[in-house]
Design goal:
Distance between the termini: 33 Å
Helix content: 40-55%
Radius of gyration: 16 Å
Strand order of the largest sheet: 1-3-2
Shape: globular
Largest sheet: 3 strands, mixed
Structural class: mainly alpha
Length: 115
Amino acid sequence: MVLYKFQEKLDEAYKKFTKQEDSSESGIRGFAQMSEGEDVCYVHIIPAEIWDDREALTIMGHEIYHCALADHKDLIEDTYIEDKGLNSEDLLSKDRELELEWLSEDYIEMGIEID
């Protein structure tokens, strides 16, 4: 596991790993880096600052899942999507909507106001 204190450093690592030097993409929450030549996987994240930071812990778990079990492409193409007539972007979008819905419910329960 590779831990970062600053978002900028995580963004730089992601751009270097994906070879997108001129990418305008920023705000990456984490990524899994798999080595093709060896059976090694690194999770790059900004760690949770408090023990119940559910969003940070969810991101960490998501990236560990990539290392241990699958990447998005294999998971999507081999399962659910063909039966439902969706494409991979549809499924990823629905997944993110559910994550945000669950986080919103948690924040409301904790008394945190959200937009």
